[in-house]
Amino acid sequence: MSMEGGEEQMEVYSVWAIPPETVRPRLKALMENLKNEFGGPEFGPHITMVGAIRLNRKDAIAKLVASSEGLKPIKCRISSVSKGTFFYQCIYLLVHPDDEVMEASRHCTEHFGYVSSSPYMPHLSLLYGDISEEEKDKAIEKAKALDNVIDQLEFEVSTLALYRTDTEDKTLESWELVADCKLRDGN
Q: How many CB atoms lie under 10 A from the CB of residue 86?
């Protein structure tokens, strides 16, 4: 595990499953192309496992470590390029909600004591923004044109990362990596 900083004030954190280095450049290129055409902030490829939750840094790190110790690498399969209805789910890759992915999310949310107001929808965001439905449709078509087999992508996640994610900051400039943990077979 690696970590940075150590303040004790209550802040908003999220837990992300980080795609492997083998697929990150492909995802980043797609994200960069969409951002250049449709706007929005820059962020790294991830699948949110635990949404925004207010904790102090020490507790958040402890919960990340505890949740990652009981979790094996997670196999992920992309099923489509989709659009959402709010800023943080503007354009995304829908991750097939198979048992392994759903159980990993449940495992993490239980360790963090996170309760969501809506059912978990595993996804990997490509673009954050408030754009029209027409622009969203254009962005989906652009994503498919740039990578016509992106909806067939499969990969294994072996890193969970804790990010400080102030959801009021839509520039994402305050967002930062706090800690990460490797997932290992045999845990």
A: 9
Phi, psi of 49 (to 5 degrees): -100, -35
| pLDDT tens, per residue, the chain with 187 residues | 444 544 478 888 889 999 999 999 999 999 999 999 999 988 899 998 888 888 888 999 998 998 898 799 999 999 999 998 888 889 999 999 999 999 999 999 988 888 877 888 999 999 989 899 999 999 999 999 999 999 899 999 999 999 888 777 677 677 788 999 999 875 4
- In the numeric block, which tokens belong to residue 179? 């800690």
Using N-to-C axis directions, what is the helix angle for 133-146 and 24-38, rounded to 10°? 140
Catalytic residue numbers, as ranges? 46, 123
